[in-house]
Each structure stands twice: as structure tokens, then as C-alpha cells.
């Protein structure tokens, strides 16, 4: 009797699953599902990007995929991406609930906040405040170049040695965003600073990696002591540290004389009087952590990728250095405007962003209303995944889609030219908030380093491995390098 009841219950659950995962009429096509897993078994969870491309080759540029019982729509290629994120931008501007990242942030802040008034106000506040503190101005250039001096000082000490740069560039990127938010920077050997950087790198791997997908797909497992618990715990630890900084600012600030972004936020709360909503402490803390994560991991991993390419292609490194020496002849310091006189170096930096594909699946979206995409009907609340990597390597959009080649960004006259398929920060209203800061950092940091140093692949290190470590932000595999100071010359 008991066995019969159990079998009946199992059959009922499987029937219910099959009904739930039956694709609605005019929904994008996709692979057949299986109970519990949906289509998850068809992905290499270590890095699913290649598998998603194979599914797109079979089912089209817009196809459906089930994470357990939850349907998702995968967008591949530039045309479908532009239709969703530009032509129908507001229809696809939502953020999904019920995933690890939304639980970490509780749907607050900027990155994982759903489309609506609170998100709009906080994004606008962050953009205006960052501009007030120098973004796009000479003061921000000085802030970045000041931070680069710490990297250069370290590299001079270890010149000629084989070193591991795993966190070196994270240190600089994190300190730049910390100086904007907190009004101060950390010493690179600060214990909590290093723990915070490790947390961001680890959580990036977990959130879009196998354990993150298991968390998103199988809610019954979320309370078990599995690796995603460390992501929740570490995020809370950093959040409490930032709260201590906020409380210190409260005690020392002078109203309407903001020293940094925190003071600016507290001024905004005061200005709103008795009802400051949606501005409050929980929103502020999540926004600060959003900016900390977005301002650290993406930029630093792109710089690490660039250095790897410099070592793998020494002829490209040398040509950049010749151009830099010629443009900066007789000057102690560069400026962001110099990029217009360095087309080849600009092309190399952009090619690094394209080839490295640092945000391969961007941040997941969801639909805010019933809508259509390339003729398919997509209901409100559907999880939407942008395969940005597919656009950055799309064969019809690039001269050399599958190899590292700066000519992807140079026209026949050798002038820098940015193709429309270049969208490493996504596009539309939810494009990366820190894009302007990231572009400035990449140029100023990489050009300064190329001017001062030569990067050499160690003789005993084998061949460079460009296989990325997948995550919310994709990173190069750990590698070693040798740094040699340059004698600056001009042609």
C-alpha cells in the first residue's frame, strides 16, 4: 500500500513537471526537458558558453532553456540582442527574483534591483554623484594615475623575478572605487582588504558556476551546507564592514559638504526629509556593494587578460610601446585624451575586452510584460539570458572572430574604429553603470604599465593558456609573469 502511494506520488510529480515545462504556443523552441533538471544536464556547468552556442546553432538565435522547472530565453547574436535591449528595451529591463544574486542583494541597490522607480532613482544618483567626484574629469585621471604609481612601485621591487599577478590589479581597481565611495584607499596588505577582494572573486565564480546553478534550480537544497552558503556568508561579512564605514561617516560628516559617495547619499536622505524612500540604509549598503563588485572584478580581470596577451604576443606589445613612446615623448604623464592619438593601442585594449569576454552572460534579465522577440511570444516574468560572448565572437560581425587580432578595431587606413557588435558592457538602459570609469582605468593603467615595463612570459611556464575561468565575471587562469623595466625611447 505504501509503495503504491509513493509510486503514485512520484508519477504525479513527474506529470506536474512535464505540464509545467511544456512550452507555451509561440514560445521559442528548445531542447527536450527531463524531470528535476529541465535542460541543466545539457550544459557543462564549469563553463556553459560553448554549449549555449551549440544549442543556438540548432534552435536559432532566440531559444528556450529550462533551469529545473523554470523557463528561460537565451538571446544570441547582435541582431536579436539589439532588438531585445534597444528596440524593446523596457520590455526586457527587469531583473529575476529567486536566484542567488537576487538573494544576496535582496533585490535592492542597482545591479539586481528590478526595473522601477527605486532602481531609476539610485542609478541616476550614482551617475550624478560619480561625475561630481571626477568621473570624466582631470581629477579622476589623477586619482587613477596616483593608484597606478603603487602598482609601478611594486613591480619595480620585483623586477626580474617570476611573480603571480593574481590580485595585483584587483588591488588597484578596488582602491580606485573605494576612494570614490569611502573617501580613502586601503594599503594592499590590509587584511580585510585582501579578504574582500577574495570574496568578490570567489562569489563571481559561484554565482554563475555549478553551485550557483544548483542553487537557482533546486530550492530544496538551499539550506544545505554547500559552497553557495559561503557566498551568502561572505557577502554579509563585507556588508557589515561597509556598514561600519557608513556609521563612521555619520559621526564625522559635515552636511552638504560631501567628501565621497557615502556623504552624498546621506545628504540625499536629509534633503528628502521625513519620507526619504526609496533612499535608506539597506538600499545604500547594497548599492555600495554593487559598485564595489562592479568596479573591481571586471576591470581587474580585463587588465590581467591584457597582460597575458602582451606576453603571448610580444610583437603586439612592442608596437603599442612604440606608439606610446612617440605620443608621450618628453612628457612625464599621459592623459585620457591621449587615446585619440593612439589608434593601435586603443585597438589592442578593445580587442582584449572582446577576446576576454569578461561578462560572458552579462547579468540575467527578465521581461516586465508580455512581449515578442524575433516573432516569438515571451510572457511577463520570463528569465532572459544575454549571451554577450556570442556577439563578441560572431562570425558575421568581426574580421577575426576567433583569434586575438587588433585589426578587428582598425580600418584600412589604420584608424581606430569600433564595430557595432562591440558590447562588452551590454547595451540599453541596464548597461554597466561603471563603463565610463572602466574605459578610463583600462587606458590609463595599461598605457602607464606598457610605458614603464616589458612583460615577459617565463621560460619554464609552458605555453600561455587562454582558457577562461567562468563566472559572473570571466577571468584568465592564474599565470606567472616576469617584469623588466623599460628604457623609454621615442621614434
UniProtKB/TrEMBL annotation:
Keywords: Heme, Iron, Membrane, Metal-binding, Monooxygenase, Oxidoreductase, Signal. The keyword Oxidoreductase applies. Transmembrane segments: none annotated. Its main location: membrane. One of its GO terms (cellular component) is cytoplasm. Coiled coil: none annotated. This is Cytochrome P450 2F2-like. It comes from Alosa alosa.
